[in-house]
Automatic annotation (TrEMBL):
<keyword id="KW-0350">Heme biosynthesis</keyword>
<dbReference type="InterPro" id="IPR033659">
    <property type="entry name" value="Ferrochelatase_N"/>
</dbReference>
<dbReference type="GO" id="GO:0004325">
    <property type="term" value="F:ferrochelatase activity"/>
</dbReference>
<feature type="binding site">
    <location>
        <position position="278"/>
    </location>
    <ligand>
        <name>Fe(2+)</name>
    </ligand>
</feature>
<feature type="binding site">
    <location>
        <position position="197"/>
    </location>
    <ligand>
        <name>Fe(2+)</name>
    </ligand>
</feature>
<dbReference type="InterPro" id="IPR001015">
    <property type="entry name" value="Ferrochelatase"/>
</dbReference>
<keyword id="KW-0479">Metal-binding</keyword>
<comment type="pathway">
    <text>Porphyrin-containing compound metabolism; protoheme biosynthesis; protoheme from protoporphyrin-IX: step 1/1.</text>
</comment>
<keyword id="KW-0408">Iron</keyword>
<comment type="function">
    <text>Catalyzes the ferrous insertion into protoporphyrin IX.</text>
</comment>
<dbReference type="InterPro" id="IPR019772">
    <property type="entry name" value="Ferrochelatase_AS"/>
</dbReference>
<dbReference type="Pfam" id="PF00762">
    <property type="entry name" value="Ferrochelatase"/>
</dbReference>
<dbReference type="InterPro" id="IPR033644">
    <property type="entry name" value="Ferrochelatase_C"/>
</dbReference>
<dbReference type="GO" id="GO:0006783">
    <property type="term" value="P:heme biosynthetic process"/>
</dbReference>
<keyword id="KW-0456">Lyase</keyword>
<dbReference type="GO" id="GO:0005737">
    <property type="term" value="C:cytoplasm"/>
</dbReference>
<protein>
    <recommendedName>
        <fullName>Ferrochelatase</fullName>
        <ecNumber>4.98.1.1</ecNumber>
    </recommendedName>
</protein>
């Protein structure tokens, strides 16, 4: 029989890196300003002319927004640090337990631990192969592609990247089960809202697959839950700037649901692998307060975070990616 690769055999020269967006090191103005400066300098995130954008960023946006954003971070900060950093680290540890034959670590596209520096360190430590798994279930040129840019530029490594897992059956099942457990504990809500991070409409019009993948994810999860078409809605949150973004907006959708007399809405954010500022402060706090002012109750369903089902789903994705890549067993 021909030799075949096995991810059950030791592969000490292979690393799996979970790559998330990033987060400030502290919930203060200086740390937030450093983080936002790195994040908003990426041409994948803001594609304006640098002659226009850099002065606007450094002399208007950062001075005006850093303190306000720091206050938001402070409202959700954990004893161990930023929620995104804490949950990403714990998820990498959980995935390591699922894949003891591989080296599993995490990195951040912006902030620490730096994705670029991590790749350099892995090469210096004798790692030959790197599988990057961006923690974005749905692919976008503004997020996943930026992770790929850094990976492509890293010399001396055999490299591969998971581009998306928006329809992975184990991931869909894990999200659906988390919603079932939430509803079993708190009672079924009147409506389920899938809230994804927004994207400028012009990027979608130019071919970014993100909205199509968001729609496919929401529909697959709804089908796994056995929901009727009128029992759920998809929307987009976290708009930034004045241009048109993907619609409908989550805030507008909640306003419309309240106007229809819906008083109890469950909100899940399956575009986020782990909880972060956008889920904990924007949805679970700010939008919940706005909906309460309209006489309703918004119940936020947490992200999968470092749950066993999440780690198992990602382990399945890694095994499939590595199956045809690792050297064959003798």
């Amino acid at each position: 029989m021909p030799a075949t690769a096995s991810t059950d055999a030791p592969a000490a020269d292979t690393a799996v890196v979970l790559v998330n967006l990033g987060t400030p090191d502290a919930a203060n103005t200086a740390a937030v300003r450093r983080y936002l400066a790195e994040f908003l300098h990426d041409r994948r995130v803001v594609d304006m002319s640098r002659w226009l954008w850099c002065p606007l960023l450094h002399f208007a946006i950062l001075p005006l927004r850093s303190g306000k954003v720091a206050h938001k971070y402070a409202s959700v900060w954990l004893p161990e640090g930023s929620p995104l950093a804490v949950h990403t680290r714990r998820l990498a540890e959980a995935l390591q337990r699922e894949l003891p034959q591989l080296r599993v670590i995490h990195a951040m596209r912006y902030g620490q631990p730096s994705w670029r520096a991590t790749l350099q360190q892995l090469r210096e430590q004798g790692i030959e192969r790197v599988l990057a798994l961006p923690l974005y279930p749905q692919y976008s040129t503004t997020t996943t592609a930026s992770v790929g840019d850094v990976l492509d530029a890293a010399p001396g490594l055999d490299k591969r990247m998971v581009h998306d897992y928006h329809a992975d059956p184990d991931w869909v099942a894990a999200v659906a089960e988390s919603i079932r457990r939430h509803r079993a504990a708190h009672g079924p809500g009147e409506h389920l809202l899938f809230s994804f991070h927004g994207l400028p409409q012009r990027l979608a019009a130019a071919g970014d697959p993100y909205p199509r993948q968001c729609e496919a994810s929401a529909r697959a999860i709804a089908q796994a839950l056995g929901l009727a078409e009128d029992a759920w809605t998809l929307s987009y949150q976290s708009r930034f700037g004045r241009e048109r973004w993907l619609e409908p907006a989550t805030a507008d959708t909640l306003t419309a649901l309240a106007a229809r007399g819906v008083r109890q809405v469950d909100v899940v954010a399956p575009g986020f692998a782990v909880d972060c500022l956008e889920t904990l402060e924007e949805v679970a706090m700010m939008l919940a307060e706005d909906f309460a002012a309209r006489g309703g109750t918004l119940r936020y369903v947490p992200c999968l975070n470092e749950s066993p089902a999440h780690a198992q789903a990602l382990a399945g994705i890694v095994r499939r990616e590595l199956a045809g890549w690792l050297p064959a067993d003798p």
